[in-house]
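stage 2 :: seqdesign
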């Protein structure tokens, strides 16, 4: 058949054979495309199988809780126990009834000491100021505290007159009040402190004498006095919440001597001047609850 076109017939179509370089390029492109597809699918599968705990996590930031602030004023109630102790002294001047030896014996036997304890309770109010971890404050309190220290000699006899005699002394109080600065260290809601200041009370003192004479000689000396002394102690306080505080506290208070003057009188005639005195020391352990404004 002729390669030229014959009138009325189609010219035969001949495909030009592919050259070797073209065949290589096509096969290489297909191979690279398949390899890239396999690599992509593998990486997606590996990412899907990766454990969640190996995934990087963004660190969460928890805001720090601010430390408790003790600055502010408060009022509250307290209760606990107290002990009171007194040292008593007696002096009898020689006179027209008791001679020197008998008067000295009454004085010696009429000197001694005694302690007693009782419950106490009351209230307190104050204010604190905090700078850093240092807390300073001022507090006043008033507690009902009935103390009754008493001393009586053993039954002895007057060395000259020979009569038995009894001499006794008693010192009572009804309250304890203090005004005290406080200073200490705060650790968030804990506050440990020391304290010291002025203490107040009222003491009633009585001394009595009676002997076995017939009729008996008697004597009495009484006195009542408002006392101002000193106090010192320590305590620990804890903030249950922003407003409610609890506390444990110890105080020691000491007061000056209360004295009295009286007369021993013998109905048959004769007198002696009687001197008596007693000091006062208190110890208090109490718990308290306060409301902070």
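stage 2 :: out
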């Amino acid at each position: 058949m002729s390669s030229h076109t014959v009138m009325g017939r189609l010219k035969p179509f001949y495909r030009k054979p592919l050259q070797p370089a073209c065949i290589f390029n096509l096969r290489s492109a297909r191979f690279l495309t398949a390899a890239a597809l396999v690599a992509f699918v593998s990486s997606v599968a590996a990412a899907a199988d990766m454990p969640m705990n190996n995934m990087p996590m963004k660190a969460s930031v928890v805001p720090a809780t601010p430390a408790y602030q003790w600055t502010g004023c408060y009022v509250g109630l307290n209760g606990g126990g107290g002990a009171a102790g007194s040292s008593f002294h007696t002096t009898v001047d020689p006179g027209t009834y008791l001679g020197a030896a008998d008067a000295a014996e009454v004085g010696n036997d009429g000197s001694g000491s005694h302690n007693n304890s009782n419950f106490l309770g009351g209230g307190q109010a104050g204010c604190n100021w905090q700078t850093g971890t240092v807390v300073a404050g001022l507090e006043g309190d008033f507690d009902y505290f009935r103390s009754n220290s008493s001393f009586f000699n053993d039954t002895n006899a007057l060395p000259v007159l020979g009569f038995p005699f009894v001499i006794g002394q008693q010192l009572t109080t009804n309250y304890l009040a203090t005004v005290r600065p406080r200073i200490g260290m705060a650790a968030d809601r804990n506050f440990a402190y020391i304290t010291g200041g002025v203490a107040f009370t009222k003491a009633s003192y009585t001394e009595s004498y009676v002997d076995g004479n017939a009729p008996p000689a008697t004597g009495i000396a009484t006195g009542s006095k408002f006392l101002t002394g000193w106090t010192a102690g320590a305590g620990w306080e804890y903030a249950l919440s922003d407003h409610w505080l609890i506390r444990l506290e110890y105080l020691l208070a000491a007061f000056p001597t209360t004295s009295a003057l009286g007369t021993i009188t013998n109905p048959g005639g004769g007198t002696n001047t009687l001197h008596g005195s007693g000091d006062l020391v208190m110890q208090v352990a109490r718990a308290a609850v306060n409301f902070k404004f």
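stage 3 :: structure notes
- Helices lie at 20-49, 100-109.
- The chain has two domains: 19-54, 72-292.
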